[in-house]
């Protein structure tokens, strides 16, 4: 019969392997508070480090909320790291001061400060993973908290076993103990003789999560289901699988709805959004918020509905405040979801890239890849009849009238073009106005240039210049693919 220690390690190994949490050579930050969960996590990963070929770095943040007790925990974590011969980063930040200045709860402030600490530490040491000690009890609490506040399938899916640290990060948060219980973790600590500290704030009923943990869950266990924690954790697993499938469907709709996406804002096309099923609409709103801030614990269903109402009936200039430092505003036929801190500070630097023809050219400032290919028109004998039906993210040109010296840049003062099907020329500025493109995203839209001629304003307008005719023999096909999950290739 396997010991508790073996079951604990096997559970971690199984979850890590099943979800591809680690890759050989990974540098992993382990968030260690000094409590039983994080101490067990560190020891478990230390046991498995050679098997997975990883290196560990201990990170501890003193929130400066509990005086000498917190200072002693920091000293203990430092001693533990030294005992295991691991590098360690310890920092103290006044969370109460942070909360007061930003007028947020201590819980929210602590999470924001902690995740920012992990981000900075990961960058400093070159880590690509941050391991956290959440377990199945934490998962059950999260599901109940979100259910009480109001949420959908995504929220009821609880905490994922792995996710980006924030919206545009290549640093991944992993939770290798998510299928273990609190009792199993403490038994492991006892068996391998790990000392740990108990944070008194974890039993303070002033915090809503603590009341769910120490009052609601015991009541449910006693009167309704003694295995409620496992039931809620299993439900979260099932819903995350369903949500993963639906999210793939949503991803396929992003090209129709998302006008642009950056680290500070996501711009949605209102008519295209309103054409979607309401279930897709809600997920696109959540995707946009998650793209900007990562974790959405405070972004509930009521906030999603507020944004949708802004899309359905809001007037240009209407603006609503959202959790997580976000706001949403109506601008013509667009909804702009943006970071409040970033409003007014998005200065787009000029960009210019020579297109690889044939090939793919990344334009990170616009979160777009332009793919170019050249072919004989005989390959698509009906192209002249169907080119007018081409998607707005693709364009065709006569290679007999141009060469391969084509560039992609953002707009410049005085830009003009002759839109396909129109006589004469038009200012690019007027194209943006006619298309109701918000001022704050015009600089992000790539303009495709040959010499002094504008060939294509990506996603908006194709030029008459070098258009296909019955005399065309060789065709240049350009297609834009937008980066939705991240602007980091």
Q: What's the quick description here?
A:
The chain is α+β, with helices and mostly antiparallel strands and 489 residues long. It is 40% helix and 21% strand.
Structure, described:
With 489 residues, this protein is an alpha+beta fold. The chain folds into three domains: 4-134 and 175-224, 3-Layer(aba) Sandwich (Rossmann fold); 256-342, Uridine Diphospho-n-acetylenolpyruvylglucosamine Reductase, domain 3; 352-482, 3-Layer(bba) Sandwich (Phenylalanyl-tRNA Synthetase, Chain B, domain 3). The chain contains 15 helices and 22 strands. It has helices at residues 4-18, 36-52, 67-83, 95-102, 106-125, 136-149, 153-156, 182-191, 208-223, 228-257, 270-275, 278-293, 301-313, 383-386, 428-434; strands spanning 27-31, 55-62, 87-92, 129-131, 162-164, 172-174, 258-261, 265-269, 319-322, 326-331, 334-339, 352-354, 359-363, 368-376, 394-398, 406-409, 416-417, 426-427, 447-450, 453-457, 461-462, 474-482. Strands 3-2-1-4-6-5 form a six-stranded mixed sheet, with helices on both faces. Helix 2 packs across helix 8 and helix 6 (136-149) packs across helix 10. The protein is elongated and about 80 Å long. It starts with a helix and ends in a 7-residue tail after the last strand.
């Amino acid at each position: 019969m396997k010991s508790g220690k073996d079951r604990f390690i096997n559970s971690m190994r199984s979850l890590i392997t099943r979800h591809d949490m680690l890759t050989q050579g990974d540098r992993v930050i382990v968030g260690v508070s000094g409590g039983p969960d994080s101490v067990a996590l560190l020891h478990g990963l230390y046991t498995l480090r050679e098997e997975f070929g990883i290196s560990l770095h201990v990170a501890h943040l003193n929130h400066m909320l509990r005086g000498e007790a917190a200072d002693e925990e920091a000293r203990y974590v430092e001693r533990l790291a030294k005992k295991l011969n691991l590098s360690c980063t310890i920092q103290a930040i006044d969370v109460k001061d942070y909360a007061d200045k930003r007028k947020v709860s201590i819980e929210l402030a602590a999470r924001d400060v902690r995740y920012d600490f992990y981000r900075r530490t990961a960058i400093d040491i070159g880590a690509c993973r941050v391991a956290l000690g959440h377990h199945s009890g934490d998962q059950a609490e999260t599901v109940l908290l979100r259910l009480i506040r109001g949420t959908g399938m995504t929220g009821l899916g609880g905490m994922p076993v792995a996710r980006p640290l924030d919206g545009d990060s290549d640093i991944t948060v992993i939770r290798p103990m998510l299928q273990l219980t609190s009792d199993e973790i403490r038994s492991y600590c006892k068996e391998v003789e790990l000392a740990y500290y108990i944070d008194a704030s974890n039993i303070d009923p002033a915090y809503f999560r603590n009341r769910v943990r120490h009052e609601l869950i015991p009541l449910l266990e006693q009167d309704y289901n003694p295995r409620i924690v496992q039931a809620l954790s299993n439900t979260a697993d099932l819903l995350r699988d369903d949500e993963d499938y639906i999210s793939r469907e949503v991803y396929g709709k992003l090209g129709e709805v998302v006008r642009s996406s950056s680290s500070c804002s996501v711009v949605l096309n209102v008519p295209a959004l309103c054409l979607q099923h309401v279930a897709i609409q809600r997920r696109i709103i959540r995707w946009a918020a998650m793209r900007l801030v990562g974790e959405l614990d405070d972004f509930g269903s009521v906030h999603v509905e507020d944004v949708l109402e802004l899309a359905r009936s809001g007037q240009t200039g209407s603006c609503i405040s959202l959790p997580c430092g976000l706001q949403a505003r109506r601008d013509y036929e667009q909804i702009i979801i943006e970071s409040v801190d970033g409003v007014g500070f998005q200065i787009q630097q000029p960009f210019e890239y020579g297109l690889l023809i044939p090939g793919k050219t990344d334009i990170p400032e616009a979160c777009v890849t332009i793919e170019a290919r050249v072919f004989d028109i005989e390959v698509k004998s009906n192209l002249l009849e169907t080119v007018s039906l081409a998607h707005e993210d693709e364009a065709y040109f006569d290679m007999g009238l141009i060469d391969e010296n084509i560039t992609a840049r953002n707009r410049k003062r005085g830009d003009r073009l002759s839109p396909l099907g129109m006589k004469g020329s038009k200012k690019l500025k007027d194209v943006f106005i006619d298309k109701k493109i918000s001022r704050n995203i015009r600089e992000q839209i790539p303009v495709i240039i040959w010499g002094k001629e504008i060939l294509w304003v990506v996603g908006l307008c194709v030029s008459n210049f070098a258009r296909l005719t019955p005399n065309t023999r060789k065709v240049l096909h350009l297609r834009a693919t937008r980066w939705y999950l991240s602007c980091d290739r």
